[in-house]
Fold:
Amino acid sequence: MKKIYFLAIAFIAFSLSGNAQLIDENFDALNLVDDISTQSSDFTNWSGPSGTTEDAFVTDAQGNGGNSLLISNNTTSDVLLLLGNNIGGLYTLQFDYYVTDGATGFYGILETDDTSSPTFTTTVYTNAGGSGTDEIRDGSNAVIGTFILPKDVWVTMTHVMNLDTNTLQILMNGAEIYNGSYGSAGGFLGSVDLWSVDASCENYFDNILFVNGTLGVDEFAVDEFSVYPNPVQDILNIKSSTVIETVVVYDILGKVVLQAQPNKISPSLDVSTLSSGAYLVKISNGTSAKTLKIIK
Structure:
């Protein structure tokens, strides 16, 4: 039986203002099929420039509004997202993530970008070894948490790393799925390994943001919209000043239970088919998104 670490419904209510935005990449300006390491200085191959067979490719097959980066089932794609070899401090890494149903996915946080002696702090391994279990592992490869990643749908993964206290918080669509140790050594943050871990691997990355400090998961202005009533019975109303493009409702395990593309200002959503309970609603206007909790 899977043990689900759903510790709390948590939202990071901080703004980007005052924080150093170190990486902001949505791949839309890059060439399709071409190697990512030759197009972006934020990426390199695991073996460096000589590892040409390790490169990953830009694709529009599953772009979350455009292009994305594909880590495919070739068992050779192995690229590093370079975060700058940081020592101490507070950092946030966020990206949109898509894993095909039945496939595996993998990414791992590394203390440095020196792969001659790599030290993983934390890895996220979806459908680990084909087991169907989505795992969070520490640097020794021990499982420190499990969760359920919705397949065939984009989710937003947020990682808040405090190198001074050696702690890590991971949120999926605004819901906390891990809160604990960042790594056995701690204090260092260098890169993220995006690796085709086996022949069943097929995962995509998009809208990568990396900042020094905290990144607002809720990027709408406070007065830009409101939802009512909450608790709700049949109809959830979204009052907005901009066009709402997508609304996705998740249960507390991260499964998509309802989605809509209203493409209008102040839309309404019929939630009458949902069972009683708590849900997360992700609302997007195409350029920013907000996730909030509702009660049915």
